[in-house]
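Folds abound. Consider this:
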Amino acid sequence: MSDYDTAERPPMKDADTLLTPMGKGGASPRSLMVRKLSDIVVLPAGRISSNERSLVADILLQVVDKVDPTIRKELAKRISHVTECPPALIRMLILDEPDVAREILEGADTVPEALLIESAHQGLMAHRKMIAGRKDLTAAVADAVLHYDEIEVSKLVLKRQDCTLSPIAVNKLVAQSASAPDLQPLLLRRSELEPAHGFLMFWWVDAERRRRILARFSLDRSLIQDALADLFPRVFRAPEPDPLVREILLLSERRHRPRGIDGEPVSAGVVMKTLSVARRHAPQEIIEAVAMIAGVSRDLTARILRDPGGEPFAVMCKSLGVPRDDFFEIYYVPEEDEGAAQQNAEYLLGVFDSMARDFCRAVLHYWDWDGNPRIAHITQLLAKAEGGIEETPF
């Protein structure tokens, strides 16, 4: 290993040639060769042609990985300021150990996007953290650094408001936030987040963020309803309606009317009684009855009734047109701590009052919209995280 020893202080450069003279001793020939070649590769464009610079870089590629990391770090620091440096040499150094790569990943103003992507995929988490902090972070590079689901890297990317994230990246971060609460406040600040993302996150965020989601993603479906109004009679009166069109029309319906097993209208009294029973006890038959009345799937109904927070129950009741006083009466169940029960009911009444009925209907549809490609992709990412299922890109 003695051949790789370096001098404590590199020799001074000749003022006329900018080349490093051979020292009297201390540094190995390899180290001196790298230093002298690095003097050439960093020469300004007027002193060296691109072909000559490439030749020097090719020589360095053969010897750089065989010298001490201190020499490689020195070379990386010097070429970080050279805009004409051959990409092959940059590639070798940014794929080097983090201390060497840092000189370029943190010191160079510009690095080709393709090289950053390759470094993100082939490097360590330390490389990805440095890349996430670069000023020239692009959506494609962000996709690469987020590929490994590293929480610290994800946090750094989410803090970069100057970088627009791709739909794939947002889907990945939403799924990741289910098991990483630290990502949730950062993600909810992103402008790329859309209703589909917010309503999925709703299930695993705390009460404060649930209210924030409902407020941020409030929407009015009247434009869609007006545009599709003439399709309702044409589709629903047809002997064999197009199933896809029928599904979309049901998603945009103006007002849901509770129906029974045979499609008969259900009175408000029956709705109230069913919801009251479901609030206190939800066996399978009650879950099925509530699902039929609410016009949503049995799985979603079970999830709503078993949710400890109660906000989804408030959304469902509002979508059914339950009056506010009746909602309070349904939800308020005196327990051992009667004060806490009343306080919780009053909190949910506030949530209930903050939402429009049509909006609540839209939220229910989002929660039940498994056929939507984006929602299906995020659900697949969640399943992958929980059970190791292979991801299919959206």
Observations:
- The two ends are 51 Å apart (CA to CA).
- Residues 1-106 form one domain.
- The mean pLDDT is 87.
